[in-house]
Amino acid sequence: MKLALPVANGLLCMHFGHCQEFNFFEIDEQGVITGSETKTPPPHEPGVLPSWLNENEVTTVIAGGMGMRAQELLKEAGVKVITGAPAISPKEIVNAFLANNLKTGDNACDH
Questions:
Q1: What is 2-7+17-98's CATH number, 1.10.260.40, 3.40.109.10, 3.30.420.130, 3.50.50.60?
Q2: Cβ contact 5:12 at 8 Å
């Protein structure tokens, strides 16, 4: 499994398309983080980030907020989308996700 989280100033970015970078986490079959890296995404244009994440072999995106078109494009590519995650550190989010206790709320994006 490969998770991607949009990040700004070291915390989960509340708007998927306006993040400074993405943190990627490789997860093995036992649910253990086996690697991580940070990448700067291409400039935001409709449809660019879903394609870029798919090229990076992402299986799950965890975001605070994401527009419906981006969600649709990711799901069409077989990528699981989780929205409404809190603005905390990406590692905290991934650890909560792996422990099945990630608390999510409303999608922070309204378009």
A1: 3.30.420.130
A2: yes
Helix, strand, coil shares, percent, the chain, to 5: 25, 25, 50
Query: Residue 72 and residue 110: Cα distance in Å, rounded?
Result: 15
Over the stretch 52-84, which tens digit does the pLDDT of each residue have?
Answer: 999 999 999 999 999 999 999 999 999 999 999
Residue at 63: amino acid letter: A
Quick check: 4 and 66 in contact, CB under 8 A?
no
**Cβ atoms 64, 57 nearer than 8 A:** no
The answer to whether the CB of 26 falls within 8 A of the CB of 34 is yes
Q: Which residue has the tokens 């994401």?
A: 66
